[in-house]
Design goal:
The chain is α/β, with parallel strands linked by helices and 545 residues long. It folds into four domains: 128 residues, 3-Layer(aba) Sandwich (Rossmann fold), CATH 3.40.50.2300; 174 residues, Alpha-Beta Plaits; 118 residues, no CATH class; 112 residues, Homeodomain-like (Arc Repressor Mutant, subunit A, Orthogonal Bundle). Helix content is 57%, strand content 10%. The strands form two sheets. The protein has a five-stranded parallel sheet, sandwiched between helices. A hairpin with a 2-residue loop joins β7 and β8. It starts with a strand and ends with a helix. About 2% of the residues have low confidence. One of its GO terms (molecular function) is DNA-binding transcription factor activity. Keywords: Cytoplasm, DNA-binding, Phosphoprotein, Transcription, Transcription regulation, Two-component regulatory system. It comes from Lacrimispora celerecrescens.
Length: 545
């Protein structure tokens, strides 16, 4: 087992790299980390690492000094530089001093880092130690503890047996003394999972547990465990003479660091709930139940918050007559899009204030509204489920899967607007299902290379017949339609974002920036930069009126 040390003045970088890989599965163990070269030199004497992953720009002792001193005292250590994109001159100097290689710390891939580390250890002698067995034993102990916590929280049978087994293990938290439970859950998890934008679930859970354990055990006595598919708990003892306000502030700080880490490294938003003070394993189960209720009511809040426990009084969910389905049904039958949007906006505004209603009851009411729209549009041969929001989610899934009421609102109104534009662009005609599916696919996959043959196969048509049907319905060829959609999206991004031209080209699926600029000028009459400057000038003039 090769011993690894991480040195960087940014705690999120250190935590991110620690959680990037199941290190022990690849023959490595993270033995320690440090925030600068001075701390690193102290810990190197104690932990004797084989590999050091180090930043260069730190104080009081930077990475160059660290490498230089270790070259004399610890020549067996292999250094890998954690670099930034604008850092090449420094990297080159570090390599001259004896660093083995470098990686870009904010974008490094697990397989890339492992490859470099494997090469480093095979080129140097390294020093496997007799501590390997104890490392594995310690790791297995953590797995056993977390498994027992999960069983205790989710089972009523064999509870005494599980408790006895748990109490025989070394625990950081004394459950006979006052403690709190901080529960953490991943927001919009069902949506994220459908998109497939994150790593393997097992690896995600593993890395998040490790980050939480590393983070909370720095300044507290804490135990971390998973109790739901994507729910974690941190048990933390209240320090002697620590008041509850100071404790909540400390937990809020640690939660904020973890939240930033989840956002930066995994693209995930998380929310948290802090229980009341409790004691004993019975108190542990009660605290988890409290936090489940608190997190359920975050439906009315926003991502990234830590919510304290508050006793709430529930109210029965009853809609006033102006929001009955018959009103929406009439508006939908008449294709009164202004009326439908006004109805839904008013409904969401009304629901936003009903924070004593059960979120599931609100979802039920919204599903009824969706059913009214879907049934009415189906009578006109339109399928509203073909329309997808920016996350690739249709209206029914948005109501079921988004964590927050506000996100449901945004998605539902976005999808209604999509349907309105489709309806109006066809002069009130309803498109053939195959053409509607193809257009929906183009809107949500424009970053990809789009071929007629692949789209035709997706809608169960031959390429030639699909092209004929599409042109008959739209009046332009499929490729002309793709081109038009890409140019429209490019204009939107130039107006609404600060993305560079080459980044916008990538966003709309044209991977040659020069070709993109040529095509944009051909379509719009201005280069992308000229268009943006003209739009900004016009927006500034309008703001003065």
């Amino acid at each position: 087992m090769k011993r690894v040390m991480i040195v960087d003045d940014e705690v999120l970088v250190r935590l991110g790299i620690q959680s990037l890989i199941k290190w022990e599965n690849h023959g490595y163990q993270i033995v320690c980390d440090a925030s600068d070269g001075e701390e690193a030199l102290q810990k190197i004497r104690q932990y004797q690492p084989d590999i050091v992953l180090t930043d260069l720009k730190m104080s009081p002792v930077d990475g160059f000094e660290l490498i230089s001193e270790c070259r004399e005292k610890y020549p067996h250590i292999q250094f890998i530089v954690l670099s930034s994109y604008n850092d090449f001159d420094n990297v080159r100097n570090a390599m001259k001093m004896g660093a083995f290689d470098y990686v870009f710390k904010l974008t490094v891939k697990p397989e890339e880092l492992l490859k470099i580390m494997d090469e480093a250890t095979s080129s140097g002698k390294g020093s496997d130690t007799v501590q390997e067995t104890s490392v594995l034993a310690e790791r297995n102990m953590e797995v056993i503890k977390r498994g027992l916590f999960k069983r205790i929280l989710n089972s009523e049978t064999f509870l005494k047996k599980y408790l006895e087994e748990l109490m025989r293990l070394p625990l950081s938290v004394n459950f006979d003394h006052p403690f709190h439970i901080l529960s953490i859950t991943i927001d919009d998890f069902k949506v994220v999972r459908k998109k497939g934008d994150f790593m393997d679930l097992e690896l995600l859970i593993f890395t998040m547990e490790n980050i939480l354990s590393e983070l909370f055990n720095r300044h507290h006595r804490a135990e971390v465990f998973q109790y739901g598919e994507y729910d974690f708990a941190v048990a933390v003892n209240l320090e002697e003479n620590q008041d509850h306000k100071a404790f909540f502030t400390a937990m809020e700080k640690e939660f904020g660091i973890f939240s930033s880490c989840a956002r930066q490294y995994y693209g995930l938003e998380v929310s948290g709930a802090l229980s009341r003070e409790c004691t004993g394993i019975k108190g542990l189960k009660e605290a988890i139940a409290q936090n489940r209720g608190t997190l359920n009511m975050r439906f009315f809040s926003e991502p990234g918050k830590l919510h304290p426990y508050e006793r709430s009084v529930k109210e029965e969910a009853v809609l006033p007559v102006e929001f009955h389905s018959s009103v929406l049904e009439r508006l939908a039958a008449e294709h009164d899009f202004f009326g439908m949007r006004k109805f839904l906006e008013d409904l969401f505004e009304f629901l936003k204030e009903k924070n004593r209603w059960e979120p599931e009851e609100i979802r039920y009411l919204l599903r009824k509204a969706y059913g009214t729209l879907a049934a009415s549009f189906a009578r006109s041969r339109a399928d509203i489920d073909l329309f997808l929001d920016k996350n690739g989610i249709n209206m029914e899934a948005s109501i079921n899967d988004y964590t927050y009421l506000e996100k449901i609102r945004q998605s539902v109104l976005e999808l209604l607007e999509q349907y309105k534009k489709e309806y109006e662009s066809n002069s009130g005609r309803i498109l053939r299902k195959e053409v509607a599916e193809a257009k929906s696919f183009v809107r949500s996959h424009m970053k990809e290379e789009l071929q007629v043959a692949e789209i035709a196969a997706m809608v169960n048509m031959s390429g030639s017949y699909f092209s004929h049907v599409f042109k008959k319905e739209e009046g332009i060829s499929f490729l002309e339609y793709v081109y038009r959609v890409r140019m429209e999206q490019a204009r939107y991004l130039l107006e609404s974002s600060d993305l560079k031209v080459n980044e916008i080209a990538d966003e709309v699926g044209i991977f040659n920036p020069n070709y993109f600029s040529t095509q944009f000028k051909k379509s719009v009459g201005q280069s992308p930069l000229e268009y943006r400057q003209a739009w900004l000038k016009k927006a500034e003039e309008n703001s003065r009126i």
